[in-house]
Amino acid sequence: VEDDDSWKGSGQARLLSGAFGATAGNTSRSAYIIDGSNEWHAFSYSMHRSHLAEVDELMIATGLETPDGDEPITTYNIAVKQPHAYLNRFKRNDAVEDAVLRIFGVDLKGCFFGRDRGHEVLLLLQNVSLAPDSYHKDICDDEWPGHKGITVLTYPHDTWEPAWHGHLELGNDKIGALAALAPLSSRSLIFDGCIQHRATNPTADALPAQAPAMVSHYFR
User: Fold this and answer.
1) What is the percentage of the chain residues whose pLDDT exceeds 70?
2) Average pLDDT in the 66-76 region?
3) Are the C-beta atoms of 55 and 209 separated by less than 8 Å?
4) Mean pLDDT over the full length of the chain
5) pLDDT, mean of residues 61-88
6) Which helix (H) or strand (E) holds 78?
7) Exposure of 44 by Cβ count < 10 A (0-12 exposed, 13-18 middle, 19+ buried)?
8) Do residues 205 and 144 lie in contact, with contact meaning Cβ atoms separated by under 8 Å?
9) Element (H, E) at 151
10) What is the CA radius of gyration of the chain?
11) pTM of this structure
12) Is 193 in a helix, a strand, or coil?
C-alpha cells in the first residue's frame, strides 16, 4: 500500500497493487482507497441513506430466511433508482476522473454500466446472520473485450470500528484473503473488476449509523 501524492481531492488516497492470487501472466491489478469527506462521497452517502429509509421491514426480515432447497443468502441487494444520475455525478468529480485515468487507464467520460438494466447500482446489505459470501470477480477484461471493468464501492456509515469486522477481502478461495479493507466512514473504493473479492459479515454489536430511525435494525 502506498500513498497517492497525486490525488487532487480532499482527504487521503492510497493505492494497493499486486497479483491478488492470480497466476495467468502475473498481471498486476490495483485497488484505490479514498478516505475523507468529499463531494462525491457526500452524494453517495445521501443516495444510500435515502434508499435505506425506504426499505420495507418485512421484506428485509423475510429476506433473512432461506427457504428449503434454495441457495443461502449471502447479501441483500436493493437496486438504486436513477442509476445514471449516480454515474453522471461520479464522472463529474475532477479528482476521481484524474485518478481513474492515471491508475486504471479509464476515461470516465466514456464509462457505462456493464451489467443488465436494473442492476447497475446496488445497495448491498450485510448482516451477521447471513451466509458467508464467496470470492468472485465483477466485470473482468474478457466480459467486455476492449474495455476495462472497474468496481466502485462507497460506505454510508457514520462510524465504524475495525473490531466490528465486515471487511472487504481481496484474494481467492485457494489462498484466502490477501488484503482486508474495513468499511470505514467516508471511505470509497475503486478497484479492478478482475480482482476476486468478497464481503464479510459484521459482528452483532456493529452500530455504524448515528440516525437509527433511517436504518433498519435488521441490517447494520
Assistant:
1) 80
2) 57
3) no
4) 81
5) 65
6) strand 76-79
7) buried
8) no
9) strand 150-154
10) 17
11) 0.85
12) coil
